[in-house]
Structure formats: structure tokens, C-alpha cells
Amino acid sequence: MITLKQTIISWLFLIILTFSSVYIGQVIETPEYLIALVLLIVFLKGQQVTDVFMELRTAPKMWRLLLLGYVFIIPAVICVIYLL
Amino acid sequence: MSLESTLMSHSPLSISVPELLEVKIIDKLANKRLPGDLAMWFFILAELTVFAIFFIGFAIAEQLHSDMFIVSKAKLHPIAGLINTIALITSSLFIALSVRAIHLNQVKRSINLLVISQVIACVYLVVKIWEYQFLFNIGIDIETNTFFTLYFLITFFHFMHVLLGMVILLIIGINAKKGAYQEDISGFESGASYWHMVDMLWIILFPLIYVI
Fold first, then answer.
1. Whether pLDDT at A59 is above 50
2. Contact (CB, 8 A) for B90 and A11
3. Which residues of B make CB contacts under 8 Å with A?
4. Is ipTM over 0.85?
5. Which residue of B has its CA nearest to A77?
6. Which has fewest Cβ within 10 Å: A8, A78, B18, B43?
7. Is residue B152 within 8 Å of B211, Cβ to Cβ?
8. Do A54 and B52 touch (CB under 8 A)?
9. Could you tell me if B146 and B68 are in contact, meaning their C-beta atoms sit under 8 angstroms apart?
10. Between chains, do A61 and B32 touch, taking CB under 8 Å as contact?
């Protein structure tokens, strides 16, 4: 079972990442950097939800990899589409 | 058999290294548990796939009509998107805490946390309805242009998932009150996992529509 401390830290991390992505959207004007950074943040947030909130860190590897694969591959595909 | 109990039942000299390794592996596998029902996880995968098509479709449409998307995105309120992101993440936190409480057999605490989570989820509903109302008032609807067709389609589809998640969690809360999760909590975990999926989808949706 994920500890209370881990859950709260994960939530704080998600909130900080959310504000960071909005801040990045305001200050970075180069589209390539903006897209790459914001989508990197999406992956980091998805990883937190998968591992901590969904408790897949302690689940069978296949399910964890499926969900982590989703939050990595979808932003990566979107990134490639935007940068093409 | 756990590693600890094996070690207790053997003297240090009688246990061999391969035996020790085998017990270690069994112990590790026993701890690898998928929370909730397997059927719910297949349902979650199906839902994620449908949304993946939407996300990729949105990105391709943006590349094809970039000027239209820039002008249209400027009409949205990023603060509304930000409030909704914080609401869903915080609601997910309380669901995670609620699952933790039910694991510890603290049913009343678990129900209270679940209720808090749903009150916070209502913030999302109110903000989203306000956002739709605001757009309708300035003459924007689903037929305005490609951006708004996709915007309404994807966000309303997500909105319906939030509503479905809330109904599932309401049923879980009622069942918890009736004492249905005293022994088997997989139903509770399934509902919680669905809710986290809804949160995860918004985490991708928010930057796609409001930030990039």
C-alpha cells in the first residue's frame, strides 16, 4: 500500500507541475521548446497518477507498463505531430 | 509462504541459497497485486484508446488549421482550465486517501473522504458548465469552426465520463455505508481506478487545449 506521505507528496508535485506548465505557456515563446516541455510535464504527471494514485507501482509489471506507455507514447506522438 | 515465516521455520544452516531465492521470488510475486477488478482495467484501456484517437485527431487538426486554432484558443479562459485541473487532481487525492482508509478498515473515514472528493469534483462541473455558457453567450457553438467542434466534442465526452465516475463513486459510497467492503474491496478499488483515469485524461487534455 502507498503511504500517506507518498500520496500527499505526489499531489503537491502534481499541483506544482500544473502551475509550471501554465507558467511555461506564458513565458516560453519558442513553440518547439514550449511543446516539448509541456508534454514532458504531461508524462511526469501521468507517471505520478499511474504509480501513486492508481497504485500501479506495486501492481504486475505489464499493467504498470501499459499505463506508463500510454502517458509516454501519446504525448510523444502529439509532440511529433506538432513539430513536423 | 512469506520470507519471514520461512526463515523462522528453518535454522540458518538448513536453508539453501536457491531455496532462499525461490522464497524471495514468491514473496515478491505475492505483493504484486492489480487494484480492483481485471474487467475494469480492460474497460479503462478501452476508454484510454478512444481518447487517444481524439487527442491525436486534435493535434493533426491543429497542424492543418494552425491560424484558426490560435484565434479560437484565445477565446477560452485558461484560468477555468487551471481550476478544473486542480479540482480533478485534488479530487483524485481524496479518492486515493479514501482507498487507503478502506484498506485500513476505516469505513466511516473512507466515506467522508469520498464525499469530500465528490464535492471538489462538483467544482469541475460548475466551471465547465460556466465555460460552455460563456461561449454560447458570445455566439460560439459546436458548428462555429473545426476547433470548437473538437473542443465541444472532446470536453463534453470527458464531462460525461466525470459524471459517470461520480455515479460509480456514489454507488460505492452507498455500498460502503452498507458494509459491503468489509472483506473484499476490489469493487471500491475499481471505482477509484476509473476516477483516476478520468483525472489522467484531463491531465493530457488541459495542456492540449489551453496551454500549447
1. yes
2. yes
3. 31-35, 41, 45, 48, 52, 55-56, 59-60, 62-63, 78, 82, 85-86, 89-90, 92-93, 95-97, 99-100, 103, 193, 196-197, 199-200, 203-204, 206-208, 210-212
4. yes
5. B56
6. B18
7. no
8. no
9. yes
10. yes
Q: Vertex A24, ends A31 and B62: CA angle to 5°?
A: 40
- Provide the mean pLDDT of chain A: 94
Closest to B45 in 3D by CA, of A39, A81, A56: A56
Cβ atoms of residues A48 and A13 within 8 Å: yes
Distance from CA of B132 to the nearest CA of A (A): 21
Domain boundaries defined on chain B: 1-32, 35-211
If one looks up domain B35-211 in CATH, what number appears? Answer: 1.20.120.80
Note the pLDDT of residue B182.
86
pLDDT digits (tens, 9 = 90+) for B89-117: 999 999 999 999 999 999 999 999 999 99
Model confidence over B27-82: pLDDT tens digits?
Answer: 455 568 899 999 999 999 999 999 999 999 999 999 999 999 999 999 999 999 99
Q: Cβ(A21)–Cβ(A38) under 8 Å?
A: yes
Q: From CA B80, how far away is CA A29, in angstroms rounded?
A: 22
Q: Do A21 and B103 touch (CB under 8 A)?
A: no
pLDDT band with cut points at 50, 70 and 90 for residue A50: very high
Whether B12 has a pLDDT exceeding 50, the answer reads no
